[in-house]
Description:
Elements: E1 3-6, H1 10-21, E2 30-33, H2 38-48, E3 51-52, H3 56-61, E4 65-68, H4 75-82, E5 91-94, H5 101-108, E6 113-118, E7 128-134, H6 140-152, E8 154-158, H7 164-172, H8 174-191, H9 196-217, H10 221-228, H11 234-244, H12 247-275
Helix pairs in contact: 7-12, 8-9
This protein binds NADPH dihydro-nicotinamide-adenine-dinucleotide phosphate and (2S)-3,4-dihydro-2H-pyrrole-2-carboxylic acid.
The site of (2S)-3,4-dihydro-2H-pyrrole-2-carboxylic acid has 4 residues, from helix 7.
Amino acid sequence: MKIAFLGAGSMAEAIISGLIKRGIANPSDISVTNRQDVERLNLIARIYGVTTETNKEKAVSEANVVFLAIKPKDAKEALQSIASYVNNDTLIISVLAGVSIESIQQLLQKEVRVIRAMPNTSATVGLSATAISVGENVTEDEYEFARTLFSAIGSCSIVKEDQLHAVTGLSGSGPAYVYYVAEALEKAALEQGLEHEVARKLIQQTLLGAAEMLGRTKKEPAQLRREVTSPGGTTEAGISILQQSETAEAIQACVKRATERSRELGDMLIRELEDTKI
Length: 278
Ligand SMILES: NC(=O)C1=CN([C@@H]2O[C@H](COP(=O)(O)OP(=O)(O)OC[C@H]3O[C@@H](n4cnc5c(N)ncnc54)[C@H](OP(=O)(O)O)[C@@H]3O)[C@@H](O)[C@H]2O)C=CC1
Ligand SMILES: O=C(O)[C@@H]1CCC=N1
């Protein structure tokens, strides 16, 4: 199975790294291509032993599976440039935020089979939270292939295509929200007199432990929170500050805005396609 990556950025690297570490694909079967950054291709080749290709038409025409890992704003130019090199039996897997299966088919000018996926960068360590949505004409084997592939780099849920916007706002962008919290915790720890290294270790383990508790105990987050919060104790005092600052509402607004942005990115491309009548 030959896999070509169109785009060699953070998401492509996270997936490639996960696939190779988990033995899902041989480096020699993976071909990576981008727009112009040859240094980036050389780096990816050096780290992962994959083939890199400045001739993207060649990479695409030789592949059984083409991963679209370009930014939504570059989708029109990138997909048009490969349209005549995509074979009819090639499976397209797109990780583009917001961009619909229909837009991809329109740009590739064929009823190509498309699976949309929204992974996250934790694919690097085999812990992506991915949701996929499967285009109408995708075969059972292709669906199983995608599920196996994404399950190898983390968890894989199946959703309706329209729900991918919410998935993007939640778990696609989600690692950034967690890092934002980690950054704030780190600043707070230093302010309270802890050394950087000690603080980092405590924060990482706290996040890891809480995530494991959610997964293994199956208790509701509110229940787990109550178990930490002694009446009149430190947690209650701390959480009261979060409540005063309406932190829960801010998090809901954050996910809502990111979800809306995913819709906007898809709509922007649709408008561009309508304007140029593709
Ligand atoms: N980053 C994340 O956490 C996640 C990202 N995604 C999605 O993944 C996609 C990629 O994001 P990310 O990896 O962060 O982006 P990056 O900016 O890191 O990488 C984009 C890549 O696309 C390449 N590219 C741009 N135009 C073309 C073109 N015309 N032909 C071929 N290659 C091209 C760039 O090449 P060059 O450098 O040479 O210009 C670069 O390698 C996006 O659609 C995003 O929505 C999904 C889930 C999570
Ligand atoms: O910020 C973005 O648009 C992409 C999609 C999800 C995560 N990163």
